UniProtKB/TrEMBL annotation:
Residues 124-216 form the FecR protein domain. GO terms for molecular function: sigma factor antagonist activity. The keyword Membrane applies. Pfam families: DUF4880 (PF16220), FecR (PF04773). Keywords: Membrane, Transmembrane, Transmembrane helix. Residues 16-57 form the FecR N-terminal domain. The chain crosses the membrane at residues 90-109. This is DUF4880 domain-containing protein. InterPro entries: FecR, FecR_N, Ferrdict_sens_TM.
Amino acid sequence: MSSQRHEIRVPEKILEQAIDWTLKIRFNTPDEKTRQAFKHWLELDIRNKEAWQQIQSSQQGFDILPGSDIVDIFETVEKKHPSRKLTRRNAIKLGLIGGMFLFSAGWGIKYNIFGGRQFLTAGTPVGGRRTLRLSEGSVVELNTNTTVSTEFTFRRRQIRLLRGEVLITTGKDTQSPFYRPFFVQTPFGPLEALGTKFCVRIMPESARVCVLEDVVRIMASGYNLSVRKGETFEFDVQKIRQIADSSPMAADWVDGIIVAKRMPLSTLLDELSRYKPEKLSWDSRVTVLKVSGIYQVHNPDKALEILSQTLPIKLVSQTDNSIYISSSLQ
């Protein structure tokens, strides 16, 4: 008598954890501590393993970790849970393999759930940038340390920005015979793109939207506000406000640069720190300095070196690999 495997329902929170682990392992060289932490997470709950395999199913096997590493980890888990083996056949039964998304110069995890719903999850590490070209024609540029997921149904297109920053150019959606609105979900409320090109960035306590073409509608905090070309707004769960100087929010990062025009040095340091794994901190006197120039985001250390040569500041390396920036101003 053959036994039938019971499908395991995986909460969204655990799927997000699996995404985070994928980003750590795919985009970084995991040290022994990270590998052990991943192994512990994998063994902690059978749903963790299920989530991991769901996310990896479109990658044609588990080749994100070196082959021997992933085999060793999964053999350990299989010994602890022999009845919970998830094969590729089972993954196909769950509708997780296949997918209609195309990628360019980037990495993502793609999978479909049958029934007219298409899903994709993708991300970048600290310092990384990627381009996603979606099958319905939209292009999504991912900035440093960004995670997005998409859900396309018969009725709408939706991107969920979990962290980081994106530049979105919405497509004409030629795959659908009827109009499907395009939404971006943020932790602080949704946006609707009205045939447009725009940036969205998740801040610590708010989100920003900068419109480069056409119109984006903010539907957060009980508002229904249209943001037009050249405008930048910041919003949270309670309020919306317009940002007069939107230069840090502009799309220059797509070209790998930060353009500073009498920008407060502290603002530039904030921007550069997004591309460095090591922590940056600075003297409060640094805030009075202004800078102008074009700085390369792919090499923030070089940018800091140039700043130290042209401004009254000094870079001090700390024992934890962080950098403290002191000022010689009196």
